[in-house]
Amino acid sequence: MTTLLQERRPRRERADNAARRRAQILDATIESIVRHGLSATTLATVAEAAGLSQGVTVFYFKSKQALLAEALRWQYEEYRSVWRAALNAAPADPVARILALVRADFDPAVCNRRMLTLWHAFWGEATARPLFAEISEGFDRERAAALHQQCEAASDLLDAKVWTPEGLAVALDSLTDGLWIRMHLDPDGVENAEAMRITCCLVAAAFPSRAAAILTASA
Fold first, then answer.
1. Which of 153, 155, 170, 204 could make an S-S bridge to 214, C-beta 3.0–4.6 Å?
2. 32 with 125, same domain?
3. How many CB atoms are located within 10 Å of the residue 178 CB?
């Protein structure tokens, strides 16, 4: 009877219900990773967090590997939506666009305790799980290309004795990664605004003719 009623529902309603259920399971997966860690997260812990049967979880995601992979994609998509929006809203000036990407890295929407816990849980497993590495590589390449493009566009303003566009892009990404690690390990040690200010100091050093304006903007 239940199956027959479901079949009689409009296709759009069924699709909407399935999307809501998948989102519910995905949110429970993230909660389980934050609470228990990646290795201890199982279909059972996810089902419990979602308030669903394990069978329902398996129906939508088939396996723990598929569920974790979807959680990683969701995380990257959240991050991508923030940095793309920041870049799209920035003026044409490439230094301003570099700063927009820096601000996006420390936006509370993607740089908070929950998200940092997720990043580090997945980073720790990426080398051992090819699927995680594959997902990460695609998203990371896109973000790195966006930053490198802006550094290239601003190359005439760089302190050429010290910096190349490629070197600045790598330094900025490395500094962000390091600060994210520090903020994860010591949540009360460095706050988002301070992390942003530290990173802007690097940008100011790379663009000495714009240093005063960069540091003022980061205050």
1. 204
2. no
3. 12
What pLDDT digit, counting tens, does each position of 95-152 carry? Answer: 999 999 999 999 999 999 999 999 999 887 767 788 888 999 999 999 999 999 999 9
Same domain, 182 and 214: yes
Q: Which of 62, 91, 107 represents a domain boundary (last residue)?
A: 62
Does the pTM of the predicted model rise above 0.90? no
> What 8-state DSSP symbol labels residue 153?
H
- Per-residue DSSP letters for 6-69? HHHS-HHHHHHHHHHHHHHHHHHHHHHHHHH-TTT--HHHHHHHHTS-HHHHHHHHSSHHHHHH
CATH of residue 106 = 1.10.357.10
* Structural domain boundaries enclosing 51: 1-62
- The set of residues, in sequence order, having a beta carbon less than 8 Å from that of 200 and lying 6+ positions away, is 99, 102, 214, 215, 217, 218
Residues 25, 43 contacting (CB under 8 angstroms): no
